[in-house]
Structures are given as structure tokens and as C-alpha cells.
Amino acid sequence: MTTDETMHNDTETRDDRTDAVVEFPGRERSPEAKAALATMQEKLSGKTGRIFWKSFEELAGTPEFKTWVEDEFPNRTVTSQVDRRTFLRLGGAAMAMAGLSGCRILPNSKAVPYVRAPEEMVSGLPLVYATTLPRHGYGVGVVVESSEGRPVKIEGNPSHPASLGSTLAQEQAECLTLYDPDRSQSVVNRVIPKYAKERAEIQPLRESSSWDQALNILRREMINRAVSGGAGLALLTETVTSPTLIAQIQQLLRKYPQARWVQYDPTGRENVHEGTRLAFGRPLNPVYRLKTARVVVALDADFIQEMPGGIRYARDFSDGRRVRKSRPTMNRLYAFESSYTIVGATADHRIPVKPSEIEQIARLVYQGVTTRNSAVTPPRGIDGRVISALIDDLLANPGAAVVIPGEQVSPTVHALAAGINAALEAIGATVVYTPPVEAGDPAQTASLRNLVGEMDAGRVQFLMIVGGNPVYNAPTDLRFAEALLKVPLCFRLGLYEDETSEYSTWHLPMAHPLEAWGDLRAFDGTASIQQPLIAPLYGGRSPVELLADMLGNPRPGYEIVRDYWRGQARAANFENWWEKVLHDGNVPGTALSPVAVTPVAGFDASLPAAPATARYEVAFRPDPLIMDGRHANNSWLQECPKPISTVCWDNVAYISPATARELGLIPNERINDALNVSQLNGKKVIELTANGAKVRFPIWILPGQPDGVITVHLGFGRWSAGQVGSGVGQNAYLLRTAASTAFAPVEVAAAPGPAYDVVCTQGHHILHVTEINVFNGKKAETENRDIVRVATFEEFVRRAGEVFPPAHVPRVPEATAFPERHEGEGHHEGEGHHEGGSSSDQGSERPADYYRRQWDYAEHSLVNKENWPSLYPEYSYKGFNAWGMAIDLTTCVGCNACVVACQAENNIPTVGKREVGRGREMHWLRIDHYYESDENWDNAVSHFQPLMCVHCEAAPCEPVCPVAATVHSHEGINQMVYNRCIGTRYCSNNCPYKVRRFNYLKWTAGIGGERTINFELPVLKMLANPEVTVRGRGVMEKCTYCVQRINRVRIEAKKAGREIEDGEVITACQQACPTRTIVFGDLNNPDSEVSRLRREPHDYSLLAELNTRPRTGYLARVRNPNPALAATGAAAGTRGEGANPEERSAIDRQRPAGAGGAPTEGTAR
Amino acid sequence: MAQIFRPYGNVIARLVLILLALTPLTLMVTMSQFTRSSYVTKVGVPYEQPVPFSHEHHVNELGIDCRYCHSSVEVSGSAGYPSTHTCMSCHSQIWTNSPLLEPVRESYIKNVPLKWTRLNELPDFVYFNHSIHVNRGISCNNCHGPVQAMQMAYKGQAFQMRWCLECHRNPERYVNETQFVWDLYRNIQRGQRADGTVLTNEEEALKRGLQYHRNEEELKKGRELVKKYNIQTQALSDCSICHR
Q1: Residue B121 and residue A107: Cβ atoms within 8 Å?
Q2: Which of B75, B79, B232 has its CB closest to that of A970?
Q3: Is CB count within 10 Å lower at the N or C end of chain B?
């Protein structure tokens, strides 16, 4: 089809849709609009197959979207209209000044050596220490790189069971929290007047104090309390797993028997313990062993981001899905979800359900599994076939199936899951139960309620709050803040002077985990020591030091922790043992041993009745990045796009398209939806009324969100989080009561008032435009570039991995001779590169000797599998390390660990919400999220695709740079030379992958706003990785394949006179990845892991038809839907109506764009 | 009417024209020479330091190895400055009352570091690694000038990029056996090599801080070393070798 036709059709389509706009919330539409709708419906009705799309704007083909995509620099802003003369004047001046910038008088800076150099410190070499960071209060072993005494980068500890060398985003971002200038820096004393009822009344009475004064009062109070055995004394902590701290608290409770100890975490694990108590008679801690699981069922369980063992679970789970030609095995994941999480996106069958329905499903599965009968009668609205197939699947895999209930689901579900696991012989195989890792009363909410009762009754005179933030996140019906005002003396140890500090008489700064000694237990009980990397920056003290003070025995944290372990270690030589424990980062033999358990007979009969299902329910989930709000002041996490919705700097109310229609938020016209949704998402506000409270959220229509469920993320709407986190998003805790911590019935109403502005990155950096068009009398997509390739496991096995079409170009016949390569050719800047678009010449008309000009490298190259010919002489990378990367889309779970790891490693600035809205986010590595659906997108399937610079061998960015600021290295790295760059942005414009980022402003100086990172602040200067340049304004930047890490390894290898071994160079994203999705290495080494992966039959290059020859390759996503369900048309999960069309064999599809001609019939997918 | 211009006006006009033509040229030459002058580059200009430390005395007269103070030069990107403790390892025994060493003693007693003025400073986007250069036999004097002869330390080279590239493009002109780096000062001190022979031309040149041009035979040796070291010459001038 010709371009003219496309243009014509585009115009037509655009007009149709513009006409059909119906204003919110819906009104009578004009006859013209109805006619237009009919045309659209007609256009779509004959279209079969699946489409991949990113945003509603794209789906609707709005003019704004087209302008955005087609604009050379959509994210620019024109600040002034410049006429020709002014332009010449400024240009001339700039040119003249440019020469001057080269002249400088060198500064006389000072070199300040140590007075006594620490023994282990070698100037210029980083030191690496093992330590432990808390995740939901449980330990995750990490190793921290310290450069000249400053911690700069955190990695997972390979020898720690909760990490295995990986982390999630929160661990990666912890360095920023460490240096955060908003952290509390002094002891604060507040006189809380008796009449105070609100924070406004106590705010002005704040005065700085000192540790000495605070501790004097504390000690005096502790001595006074001893007389009465601690009556009136209460200790409120978060979930405590630290063995030392537990021992101290127990000692405290022995010394003060009348004192209370309460633990509270808003997303704590009390339901887990209560559920196991129902099933087994005592609270237990389930530890899943997913490595051997063939069938995994997640019951509203985000077992990656919301569980303490999430990093480990992600690794074990993905190990069961690394599909290779030589190892075609794959586990299967069913996810029943009330909110769209990354586990659901990864699942082979995702069934969106209401939170209240999870229990019914658990009962059905329990019933089916225990009676070994898969015939079920599901309640209305739930697809029985999926559950029947699931039960069959579970029964067929005894000992290799496991049911994982989410942390927040009701105890009944936990009990039933335990019953199912027992019936499936899973206990001892895919799940083991250990005694609880934490100490104290597991019923956190109930004990907090009791404490508040005591506080209200005036029976608590002295409260010590260690960590946590109960004023902000306690259930609202407990009215914790009001009760706190009645406590005459309240000490609060916290990292930030936050909401709880405002209501406390004393605020004490807490030391960050990287600043203080301590210890933690992991999800399986393994203890590890937390050793500090730096002395407290802001004079903080650790909980163990404070507890020691309360016990009347103040000592440094080091002594406290060490003395505790001296009593525990069963080693002949404690010093050696201690050294080894510190070095390895875990205490050997401390993992809790599994207990043999069988469910209590008849436990299922006495379970509480299932909750009533409300028409609309609100589900409360911790935010995937800032969690329960504790990371709210971390701009790396705030700016990181959330999985699925890619919203950043906000929380929104996720709502399903059907529910939005039902509520009249969008008109009930299917065809027009995308346009309506695009005008509605993140702009309109709805008011949620639950438990007597009203909160307004911007609306976010999310395909795949269960009908009747509004999901809101906790952790936002903080008023005293710091410069970054205060006032970001809406406070969902206000809707949450002690009786409904996971979900609540809700009333939804469209809220009048001004439009909101939520920013998301879903529509930025588009590689692929989905347009539904009519051409050649047939209906198909105009542009299908096969960005994401998906196949079923069954296809993979049947076709031995060849799951998508082989090369479009016939293989070149074996050439007879290749010219010798010229030695010392030097740079080949701009050489061998040409822009994409060779799709029109198919190669068959080439002269025979053309191919002789190809070097044998290109001939056998893994980056040019399809053997596209080039107009330019080929270039050989033989004799060098040809760095390349392989990314397995099957195992990518979209957790964002790589995004934040890249940010931490490469000094990537944050730009703030406004600039993200302009498409100026600076992440070198982004996780593209694609929806896959047919024209009914209500239950679209999600795909993640991590994308950073793919380091094209024939990089389109290089020939267009007028100053050669981006050139190729001999190892095949597309280098970005900041000091040469003059900021023309031609490279970005010419990059088909849209991976280049431009410093429109001096982001590194915090120009994006006060919520962004200012590397020029003295304390944040310490954050920057000294191995990477901090970029200034007007400079282009992009992924470098972590060239600083390559150089470090290369220099060491050269010094040792050896080659670089496979696996020696590990990029930051690869190192962080919990699922080992990213593999980096040398493509010229045939035995390297990356070469092996690139040789897999399902490896493909992104936009290979442009002949850019990317060094990064992708392994097609393989999904493993239950064949029993695929046969009945219910594959890919979802509730019946959203079922897949008949599975098309992928090999029959051809890529119309790549083939360069009109596509054959039925080519769309 | 009288003439406005006298005949000599022609001369003035010509002069003005010539000056107009010459001024930009002169300016350009002056500017370019100015930026290369030691006033800007500080090459050869001794800096004031808190302690008048003499490399000449310590290296050439006493024969102390570079690595005694710059201890990380073989293993790390940074050569490292000596801690006060390193100074005091000798000066707690000798010259214990020297007034020149008062700042050192004060630093040691008060635990306040000495603040030396840096001579060699690279821009923030340049990453230089001492260890790999030293391991390839690039002597200290190649870059830092005749260190063993400096009473007060001064900068040996301007460290402009084309100067770096001269070696990165032709490493065979500069590489040596690793031991060459450390033997150099002993040889210079002795005035002859360990085997009794006179200093080589290259050693003589390095001793004076001069650029040495190798002859064909030496270049052949250099090329062999390049091969032995597995130096990939083309890749050596890739941008990301130094900029990242």
C-alpha cells in the first residue's frame, strides 16, 4: 500500500474519532457520531488476531498522540520565538564563546591524604562489605560497595538465601535514603499542650534538643518505672526479626513485667500466622520452594514484591521457566488477582476476581483437591472451567504443585491453602512450614487496638515508638493520633521527622541500616549481621543502642550485637567465627528447620464464613515501589514507573473498563472507549467512600483490573515525609479500618472539580504504532513490527523453538573468498552504517559478487542472523570482545529492579513529575509494557520488555552526529562521549529504539524541582558513583553497557595477562535482576552464556528489518497456558468473555512491514 | 578646495589594511600560544606546598622507591598520596626537630590531614588508571617529567588529549618491561645500569624529562612488547577507554 493511502486513511480515521468524542460523563450523541461509530465498528469487526499496543491514545489514534510520535522532539518546549537575525546573532556569539570554553586556568584543588590510612583501604579501589537490609522487617543480604568510605552501590549477596545475589528496586534505592538530606538530623522536643487535638496546635512548640537531654529524661523515666514493674510503659515497634533486638526486648519485659510490647506493620503478616494457626493449630511461617514446582497458584499473592522472600521466590520461580531448545520444560502459574500485579502479568492464566471472592475460590479448589473431583459449581461470575482445569492440573502434579496465598488475604484463605498444599503432598516439597521468624504477639492489629485503648484510658504514661509510622498508617478507626496526644511522654526513634514524630513529645533521629550495627532474620530464619558502612551522617542511633539505654546499660551497637552472638555462636574460636560471619553476610545454621505438620482434622469445618461480596470493593495494596510509604521520600522510587500502569509520582484508583462504563464514567460504547479512556485516565477524579471516610483519587482505567474492584496503593498522601514525598498522591490509609485492612466495600462517585494531572510513561518512546486501518480491501494493522514476540509453550515444543518466522531474506550462498581485513584501520566512525529501510530491496537482485564484500564476521554474526546485506562495507569485530546482551522475555517479571539499579550505578538524575509529563524522564533502561488484546481490550494481557540502548552494530545515531560525539568502539559499544556532545539531538531523533535521553536542563543540579536529586549538595555529592561522569546540561546520554565495569574488568585481566572470562563483566541491571533475565557477555566467545542464548531459535533482534544489527537480543516470551483451557478457548485467563481467539500458529504469521510489500491475508496478529 | 588627505594618507590606509588583516591572525596565534603556555598549563611551575617536600632528595639522593609513598600505583587507578603516618615512619626517627617538618608532626599529633596542592588534575569526564600504565612499563617520568630531579614538584606535562593519544595510537613507541619503571631511578642514581653499562638513550631522555624518539630496532622491541602485552592498538583510542 502506498503512503498516500495511509495518510488518507489516517485522516479519515482521525476525523471519525474526533467526531465521536462524547463528553464525560456521557450525553446523547449526534447522528454523525453514530454513523462514524458504525464505520469504526465495521472496520474492526472483520479484524481477527491479536494486537500489541501501549496506550489508549495510541489505540484511539488521537491527533495529539500522532503529533507526539511524529514530532522530532516531542518533549521540547519553545521558550521564545526567535527571528532569523536574532538566531544568527546568538549563533555567532555562541560559536565565538564556544572557543573560549576551551580555555581555562586550572584550579588549585587540594589533595587530602589520610593521617593514618586504614589498613584495608587502597586509594582508588572500592571496598565491598556484606551487610543486611530490611524488607518488610525481614533481612535481605546485600553487599555494599564503598568508595573512599562512602557507600555508593548496593548489590545482592550471593550467599544469602533471601537474595542469591539479586535485589529489588527498594534495596537499590537505599543509598539515596542514606544520604537523604531530609532525614532527621537532630533530637526534637515538642511540648504537647493538654488541649491539643490537632497537629496545627502542636506544630509551633517544636524545639531542637540534644541526645544528652533526651537520654537523661529517658533514663530517669526508666528508673522511675522500675518501681512499678513498668506499669504505664509501652514499646511500639515494627515487625522485629532481629535476634539481638528480640533478646533486648525480652530482657526489658522481664525487667519491667508490667510493660507492653506491641508490633505493628500496616502490611504485616498477621493473617499468615492466623491462617496457619487455623490449619495446623499453631502460627507457622510458610517458606515456598518454587524451584521444583510445576504448577503454582497465586491467590491474590504478589509473591515477588509483597513477601519478605520475594527476591528468592522470583529466582526460584523463573528457574522453572527458562525455556530453552535443549531444555523444554516450563512451570505454569495461575493467578487469581484482585489487583493487577506483576505476578498476574507473568501468569499463564490470570483470573481477575474481587478480593472477597478469593475465599470462595480457595474453598472450591480445596474442595476439588481434597475430594479429587474437579467438577465444581462456581459462584456467579467466576469461570468454572478455569478452576476445574486448575484442580486437574494440581492433582496431576502431586508434590510439584503449590498454592500461595497473598500476605493480606484472610486467614481462612491461608488455612485453606495450607489444606490444599497438604492434600497435594506439597508440604516438605514445594512448601515447608517453620516456626515464625519474628517474636512477639503475631496478632498485630488486635494488640495495637489494645494499646490504643490503654492510651485512651490514660494508662500509658511512657511510650517508646521505634521505627514505623503509626500516626500515618494505623487503621483509622483506632484513632491512634488522638490517643497519642494523651500520652504524656512519648519518645519516637525514626529515620525521618515524620507524621508520628509530630505527635510525639520527643523525636530521636534513627541511624540508617547502613550506619549502624544490628542483625536481621530472613524469610527462612537465616540470621545475618547488619554492619555499618559509614558513621551516622546525622547523629542517629540504632534501635539496639536505644534499647540498651532503656535497659540501663548503654553501649555501642557493635558491642551489643557482638556480645549477643558471642552467646549464640557454638564455635571454638569466636573471633574467627565472627570474622567469617561478617565476611559471608550470613550466620551459618540459623535457617529455621521445617516442622512436620499435618492439618488439624476438621479444621475446614470451623472456618469463619466467607465475607459478603459487595458490588464495589476497594482493595488496598502496598505500592510496588514506595511500599507502605516508608520509601516515600526516595525520588528514585517515586520517579520509577509503576509496573503495568507506568504511573509515576502519584497513586491512582485503578478501575476496570467495564466498571467504569457501569458507573457512567465512560460511555458504554465499545469502539469509542479508547478515545474516551485516553481523555479520562489520570485526569478525572472519583471519590471513594469507605468506612465512613471519603478520599478523592484520580481515576485510572486499567484493562485486566477485576470488575467491581477499585485498587488503591498505600504509601502516598503523606504530609510530613520530606521534600520529595510530602503531598505526593492521595492517602489511601484514610479508608482503611482494623476490620478491613485488605479490602472494604466502597461507594464510587465521580467527583466534580478541577482535572487532575497524572503522569505516566506508557506513551513515551514509542517504537510501534498500532493503527487499525483498511487497505487493499482487507482489514489489518498497518504497522506490525513484532516488537514483542509471544508463543505458547506447546508451540515451542512442537516447533523446536522456531516459534516465529525465520529470516525474511534467503540465506546468502556460501561466499568463496573474503578480502583480508585491513589492520590498523582505526575508527570506523560513521562507517558501515546506514539508516533503516532496506525492506524494499529483498536482496535477490543484488549482483552476485556483492556478498563477497561481507566479512565473514558479519556472515556468521549472531547480531545479523537474518543476513541482511549492507550498503556499506562490512566491519569485523573479530579479535575483540564483542559485547552483547540477551534478555529473556519469558522470565522478565517487570519488577523495576534493573531500572533503579541502572539509576544508582550511572548517576542518572531524577527530573520530577512535570518533566516526566513532557517525556523527559532520564532512565537509560526502561521497561516497556505492552498490552496484547483483540479489539476487546477489557482483559488485555501484559508483556514486559526491558529496553536500553541495544548497541546496534550499524547504529543509526552515529552517522547523523555532526561532532562525532557518538561513535563505535572496537568492542562494538556505541559510545557516548559527553564532552564532545553539543546537544543537536539528531542521534535521538534517528534512534529507532528511542533509548537516548537528553539533559534539557541541568538535572544533576536538581533543576527539575525540589523533589529531584541535586548532586551539587555536599551530602548528595557522596552518592554519585565516582566511576561515571555526572552529566551537565545540553548533553545526550544513554546506556553504555556499564562500560566502567567493562573497563575495570579489562584492566584487571590485562594486568594478569589473560582473557576476560565469561561472567566476569556484570552490568548493573544484570546484577540486580532477581530472575536472571538479563545476560551480558562476549558474543565472540562461542561458549559464553550470552552466545548460547543468542543461538536459541527463539532469539530475535528488535526491529531487525532496519538492519541496525543490535547487540542486544530478546528471547521470545513463551507462555504456558493449560492446553485443556486453550482447547476450550479460555486461554490466557480472564473471565470467559475475554478469551483468546483460536490460537494461531505463529510461524504462519509474516511481518508485513519487514516483508516490504502488502501483507498477505490474515497477517495481523 | 584643499585636499582632505595628503599623499601620506595612502601609507596610513595601507597600514590600517595590513593591520586589519594581521590582527585576527595575531590574536589567534597569541591565544593559542597563551593556552599552551606554562602560565595556563602550569607545566614546570613549582607549587607552594605545606611541606617543602623534595623528590630529588628522597628519590635520587636516598633512593626511596616511588611505591613507598605512592603505594597503590601498581594495583589501583589512583597512585595514592602518602598518609602522614608514612612520612612519620622515617621522620619519627630522623629530622625529628626539623622546623620544616613541623606541619607533618602537627598533622600526626592533631590527627588533621595535610593538604597538598594537586599538580595533576584531569577533568571529571576523564578516567585515568595508573596501574595499567605502570604495568605496561610506562615510566612515571613519561608523564610526570623528571620527578627524580624535582626539588619542588611541578607538573611535567600539560595532559592535553592529543598528547595522550600520541601514545594510545602508537604504544610501541613507549611501552617497556614493567621492571623498567622501577629500575629507572636506581640506574639514574647509580649513573649506570645494573650490568655496568651506560644509561640507554631512552633512560637519558627520561632522566631529563625529554621526549624520546625510538630508533627502528627499539621500535621493533616495542612492537614485540605490544604483542606480548596483548595491547589492541586500534581499541586503545576508543573513546570509552578514557571517557565514560
Answers
A1: yes
A2: B232
A3: N
- How far apart CA A653 and CA A686 sit, in angstroms, is 8
Q: Do B76 and A826 touch (CB under 8 A)?
A: no
Cα gap A885→A643, rounded to integer Å: 23
Listed residue (A408, A392, A313, A288) closest to A359, CA to CA: A408
- State how far the Cα of A1116 lies from the Cα of A926, in Å rounded to an integer: 18
DSSP string, A932-953: EESS--TTPEEEEEEE-----T
Size of interface A-B (CB pairs under 8 A): 147
Q: Determine the residue among A120, A123, A963 to mutate to test chain B binding: the one whose Cβ has the most chain B Cβ atoms within 10 Å.
A: A123
Write the residue in B84, B230, B235 that is nearest to A970 by C-beta.
B235
Put simply, the answer to whether A122 touches B80 (Cβ < 8 Å) is yes
Indicate if the pLDDT at residue A38 is higher than 90: no
Residues of A in contact with B104 (CB under 8 A): none
A974 and A952 in contact (C-beta within 8 Å)? yes
Residue A113 pLDDT: 93
3-state helix, strand, coil in chain A (%, to 5): 30, 20, 50
pLDDT of residue B17: 95
Q: What is the DSSP string of A80-105?
A: ----HHHHHHHHHHHHHHHHHTT--P
Residue A826 buriedness (CB in 10 A; 0-12 / 13-18 / 19+): exposed
What value of ipTM does the predicted structure carry? Answer: 0.92
pLDDT at A815 over 80: no
Q: Which amino acid makes up residue B58? A: H
A86 burial level (CB within 10 Å; 0-12, 13-18, 19+): exposed
pLDDT digits (tens, 9 = 90+) for A865-922: 777 777 777 788 888 999 999 999 999 999 999 999 999 999 999 999 999 998 999 9
**C-alpha distance from B242 to closest chain A C-alpha (Å):** 9
Cα distance from B103 to chain A (closest Cα, Å)?
Answer: 12
Query: Nearest residue on chain A to B104, judged by CA atoms?
Result: A115
Determine the Cα–Cα distance for residues A714 and A559; give it in Å rounded to an integer: 38
Is the pLDDT at A298 greater than 70, yes or no? yes
> A1069: burial class by Cβ within 10 Å (0-12, 13-18, 19+)?
buried
Determine how β-strand A653-655 pairs with β-strand A709-714: antiparallel
How many CA within 13 A on the CB side of residue A225? 28
Residue A962: is the preceding peptide bond cis (ω within 30°)? no
